[in-house]
């Protein structure tokens, strides 16, 4: 019988790696969408709230990325688990914010 503590670090390590890569990619996606919104909407209105929300979204993904990287680099198992939980919360919060942003952008585009 294997000890669950022995198998847990490898599973958590995998989760942390996925959060790290996905959140780093999502920072790029947010920045790309900000550029597209600026290019398209600048013809209609000088300022849009959607790009501000996406900037906050990119910062949230960046925070998840940095915390997951810190968790990958730490050697303290207790700290590693705390950092992974924090990265999970930040990443899930950023995903929710992405859905809110997508809804807002779809509403703003259809309203004009």
From TrEMBL:
The chain crosses the membrane at residues 20-41, 53-71, 91-109. It comes from Dyella humi. This is DUF2231 domain-containing protein. Keywords: Membrane, Transmembrane, Transmembrane helix. It comes from the Bacteria.
């Amino acid at each position: 019988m294997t000890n669950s503590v022995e198998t847990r670090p490898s599973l958590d390590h995998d989760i942390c790696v996925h959060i790290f890569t996905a959140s780093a990619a999502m920072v790029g996606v947010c920045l790309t969408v900000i550029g597209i919104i600026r290019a398209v909407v600048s013809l209609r209105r000088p300022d849009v709230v959607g790009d501000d929300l996406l900037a906050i979204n990119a910062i949230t993904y960046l925070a998840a990325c940095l915390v997951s990287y810190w968790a990958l680099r730490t050697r303290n198992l207790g700290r590693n688990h705390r950092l992974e939980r924090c990265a999970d919360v930040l990443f899930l919060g950023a995903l929710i914010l992405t859905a809110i942003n997508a809804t807002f952008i779809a509403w703003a585009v259809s309203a004009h």
